[in-house]
Amino acid sequence: MIKIPKIHPVILSGGSGKRLWPISREAYPKQLIPLISKRSLFQKTTNRIKDKLRYFPTTIVCNAEQRFVIAEQLNELNISPNAIILEPISRNTAPATALACILLSEISPDSLILLLPSDHVISDLRAFERAIEKTASAALDGHIVTFGIKPTRIETGYGYIKTGEPLSAHEGCFKVSKFVEKPDFIAAEKYFLKGTYSWNSGMFIFKAHVFLEELERLEPEIVNSCRKAILAAKVDLDFIRVDEAMFKTCPPKSIDKAVMEHTKKAVVSPVQIGWNDIGAWQSLWHISQKDSENNVILGDVDAFDTHHSYIRSEGPLVTTLGVEDLIVVASNDAILVTKKGRSQEVGEIVEKIKMRGRKEATLHPKVYKPWGYYQILQAGENFKVKLIMVKKGTRISLQTHKRRAEHWVVVKGKASIQKGETQFVLNENESTFISANTIHRLSNQEQVPLKVIEVQTGSYLGEDDIVRYEDDFGR
């Protein structure tokens, strides 16, 4: 039996945040949200591969805009990653994976990599570990192994993989016969009944140099662009910021399109690990605990004569009467109502909303910053009201605004204020006024979160009306 070396986990955290709108947004996609427990999907993924005897510290590839949320969520788990690689723009999974492989190849070209999306649910962790052990030997023999998921129902929301001939030297592993795009219902039913098709999970295990060699043979421009982007990368705090100009030249392609559909090294291992990619609200209904009427009810909801539905509110009271098979999801600034069977189409609707210039398509009502977050409570002509939360021991940048003034009222904690040349402390129920063009800074030197209501007034209230003079986070 082959001894399995320690594995280098790589987590990809990208995504457009469209399929679980309005809770998920482009600026705050689903993997960063606690959808099924107190931990986010990203945190649950990271927790699965934290065993130091089996895994090296994790390498993460993520959107540059999400870097501080990623770092904070790792900090909550007391996990120190190997590296957090920042993508300046999205280029799909093949370039993201290439960046990680190039970096890890510097440790060893034979680095055994376990590639994981950050937004999946896996309920059977023992089966997950057994699947890794089973497939690692095939990866060590030079195969690029993908984990196929044995279908448990007829599903049109996933891609499929058809299994081919078995690998005699590696039990439970098969050559890939073909990849199939998301099918219609009739085709999905046929695949389900045949038993030779697996759902495409997007999880892989392979040697770094094997993947890079195949990618370079099939898509040399991707590898060339990624090598140059890594070579010109800059270290920014705890992040590796790849060169934007070089990375922009990289063709945007998925691993399947760039490599797996063309390589002879493609292998699939069908597994049962309690997997779900939560690709739509209906998927979340499938895996969530239901009440006696087969409903999933979350948040401030009253459901009357309601059946087989998913009703969730993270804002206003939602009531339903005499409905079934519905998805109803309310955030603070948007509400989605759709038939359960059409939840796969939500992303298309978000695109149409985005084309109309609606900020709700991309921006989350709560905007996360390295020091905490702010949430817009109300806005109108010449005014905006925000709730600002500053984490313990942190502070916002030293800044001015040219076209707006700010009124701060402390509602929880104790605020340390710099206003011009003056420094002072505000306790709960105390306030101050910051006039336009006044240099200022809000700090929390206490051991509890600080919450401040900020009322902005002025002729222009855009977030780009800011001049930073000093910033703890290199912005």
Describe this structure in words.
- The protein is of the alpha+beta class.
- The protein folds into 3 domains: 8-276, Alpha-Beta Complex (Spore Coat Polysaccharide Biosynthesis Protein SpsA, Chain A), CATH 3.90.550; 281-355, no CATH class; 370-470, Jelly Rolls (Sandwich), CATH 2.60.120.
- Helix content is 23%, strand content 35%.
- Strands 20-21-22-30-25-28 form a 6-stranded antiparallel β-sheet, with no helix packed on it. Strands 6-9-7-8-12 form a 5-stranded mixed β-barrel. Strands 14-16-18-19 form a 4-stranded mixed β-sheet, covered by helices on one side.
- The radius of gyration is 24 Å and the shape is globular.
- The mean pLDDT is 94.
Mean pLDDT equals 94
Largest sheet: 6 strands, antiparallel
Q: Would you count the extended β strands for me?
A: 31
Proportion in helices: 10-25%
Q: What is the approximate shape?
A: globular
As laid out across the biggest beta sheet, the strand order is: 20-21-22-30-25-28
Number of domains: 3
Structural class: alpha+beta
The CATH topology of the largest domain is given as Spore Coat Polysaccharide Biosynthesis Protein SpsA, Chain A
What's the CATH architecture of the largest domain? Answer: Alpha-Beta Complex
Query: What's the total helix number?
Result: 11
Distance between the termini: 51 Å
- Bin the strand percentage: 35-45%
| Rg (C-alpha, Å) | 24 Å
* The CATH homology group name of the largest domain: Spore Coat Polysaccharide Biosynthesis Protein SpsA, Chain A
CATH class of the largest domain: Alpha Beta
Spans of at least 5 consecutive residues with low confidence: none
